[in-house]
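In the design runs reported in the main text, the only information available to the sequence generator was the tokenized backbone. The following block is the verbatim input for one such run; it is reproduced so that readers can re-run the procedure and compare outputs position by position.
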């Protein structure tokens, strides 16, 4: 049997059959802008804020090798141009792995851009960007990252928006050797985030605030660098065996047909020597 969901607690020293009550006070470290990060609801929620002096961010105390991470976010309201709300998995070092959700703010009334990327051994350049089919500032929505030995899938409210498959036989690098932590931050990215940096952050609207709650991780055993992950056998419905089934494939195609606004696999001008291998294989 596979690992059971562990709410908030990111301990991956053993699998647990319990769903533990979450507590941001115990399970994350505020790594910058500590005066702008506020833990609320007895540890069940957290807010991050940004002003001209500083942004703020947190990371999980523990790390894991493979897992499924979900969190509800409500993004910065109003004129959020120039702001970046990030939520991602990342390892350490100069040859790091990373799986990114970044939410790029915009002028009031204009839609957010959801920016995604997969970085392996320090190399990224795998960006895809999307619009959402709802206003992410009005209410909380669930954003999930599935990372197992076969595939990476980005989900919004259970709908897959992007899939990145393991293709080692095609010499496509895949993050599978480095444990990662969950990170989130709110920061000023007005040199690139909104219309390529043309629209700057309006500091008269500060502080900008993003809201987080209901953080859930299902993960694998991991104890030390170089060790193997232990996930148990995993049932057919386990996250360890999860992928894009027929119904999910239809929803993914719906997103790709209606909401994707940039795909590196279609950017021949950027990759003048040829598209990345995974783009050619997938097509």
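Verbatim output:
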């Amino acid at each position: 049997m596979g690992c059971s969901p562990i709410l908030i607690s990111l301990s991956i020293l053993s699998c647990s059959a319990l769903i533990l009550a979450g507590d941001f006070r115990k399970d994350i470290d505020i790594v910058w802008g500590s005066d702008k990060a506020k833990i609320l609801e007895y540890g069940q929620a957290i807010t991050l804020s940004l002003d001209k002096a500083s942004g703020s961010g947190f990371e999980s105390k523990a790390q894991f090798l493979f897992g499924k991470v979900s969190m509800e976010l409500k993004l910065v309201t109003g004129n959020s141009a120039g702001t970046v709300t990030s939520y991602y998995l990342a390892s350490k070092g100069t040859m790091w792995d990373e799986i990114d959700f970044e939410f790029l703010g915009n002028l009031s009334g204009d839609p957010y851009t959801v920016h995604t990327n997969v970085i392996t051994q320090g190399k990224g350049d795998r960006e895809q960007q999307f619009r959402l089919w709802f206003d992410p500032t009005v209410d909380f929505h669930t954003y999930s990252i599935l990372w197992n030995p076969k595939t990476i899938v980005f989900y919004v409210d259970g709908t897959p928006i992007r899939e990145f498959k393991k293709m080692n036989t095609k010499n496509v690098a895949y993050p599978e050797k480095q444990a990662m932590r969950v990170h989130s931050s709110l920061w000023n990215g007005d040199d690139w985030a909104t219309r390529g940096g043309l629209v700057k952050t309006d500091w008269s609207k500060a502080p900008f605030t993003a809201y987080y709650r209901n953080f859930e991780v299902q993960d694998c055993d991991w104890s030390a660098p170089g060790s193997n992950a232990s996930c148990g056998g995993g049932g057919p419905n386990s996250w360890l065996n999860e992928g894009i089934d027929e119904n999910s494939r239809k929803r993914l195609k719906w997103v790709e047909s209606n909401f994707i606004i940039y795909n590196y696999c279609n950017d021949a001008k950027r990759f003048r020597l040829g598209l990345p291998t995974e783009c050619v294989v997938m097509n």
